[in-house]
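Hi,

I'm pasting everything inline rather than attaching a file, because the server keeps stripping attachments. The sequence lines come first, and each chain or strand is labelled.
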Amino acid sequence: MTQHTPVGVLLVNLGTPDAPTSKAVRTYLAEFLHDKRVVDLSRWIWCPVLHGVILRVRPPKVAKLYQSIWTEQGSPLLAIGKQQQQSLQQKLNEANISASVELAMTYGNPSIAAGMQALSHCKKVIVLPLYPQFSSATTASVFDRVARFAKHQWVLPEITFVRDYYDHPLYIKALAESVKNNWQTNGRGDVLLMSFHGIPKRYATNGDPYPEQCEITAKLLAEALNLNDSEWKMTYQSIFGREEWLSPFTDKTMEQLGNQGKSVDVICPGFSADCLETLEEIEEENKTTFLNAGGKNFNYIPCLNNDAAHIDALFDVVKAKLD
Ligand SMILES: C=CC1=C(C)c2cc3[nH]c(cc4nc(cc5[nH]c(cc1n2)c(C)c5CCC(=O)O)C(CCC(=O)O)=C4C)c(C)c3C=C
Ligand SMILES: [Fe+2]
Ligand SMILES: [Fe+2]
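And the predicted assembly:
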């Protein structure tokens, strides 16, 4: 039953296919890769490449990768998102804050329009993109979709956006606790590798603050763990297309560390939930690269997901927007 609370919270993550099939992946990629925030090339150049090559070749390949991480609850990104929604709702209830939390995805389902509609009884809506570091390719796309929804409404709530939380003390604390807990259970490697999703270098040159924010997150986490410079590295993963992306690359660094016979702990601080890019690309592909190169021990530290410390951080981010 809909609760008529004065405040709504819309948690938003990237999106994921409805099923691990070629057809569903094609539908998802078509929506995602048509967004100019994600690929900003002229449509005259991009659409022939997208329709003629990418949407024919990529879906069957990527569907197989999704099959390797799919769960009984569906795509990990969506299943974890639902847990985060429930936990944040519970935390707000416990704090006697009358607010309704909805989960939405920028691409695919549940859509931002459906989430905003479900919160249409609210006087105020706090939109919280689940990206700690701002990027035009991710956070700004959420803003675009909310604005697109608003364009068709007679009545609007007060809408507040969270731009980023890359240096929020509770976010850094949650990451540090997660690493320490993992070390206690699995032992500690020689190097902590912090891998962030990449973007084309040109986006950063044009003013996207994403790399600076990633660097600050990484430094704050290293400081919280008392690591010296030789004990940690930050890299960028998930390169797509032919132009130059942010570096150093995760896979190349993994190969170098493997060549040196090191053991490595890997964390992906920019992902608030485990997904294809962490569970398949890091925990499967990069692990293989590292071990094949001669690496000793590979330990993947899961994303903050539904950790209590993560929900505490999200709660604090929301609370700051309530006053
Ligand atoms: C085409 C360019 C891409 C940019 C720029 C980009 C930026 C970016 N993405 C995330 C987070 C996620 N990306 C995910 C999947 C994914 N990303 C791209 C491309 C770009 N991302 C593609 C084509 C895909 C789909 C898979 C594939 O075909 O390889 C996901 C995982 C979704 C899931 O279902 O699990 C996330 C999360 C960030 C944070 C970011 C820039 C900061
Ligand atoms: Fe097109
Ligand atoms: Fe991506």
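Residues 197, 238 surround fe (ii) ion (ligand 3) (CB under 6 Å).

If the labels don't parse on your end, tell me and I'll reformat.
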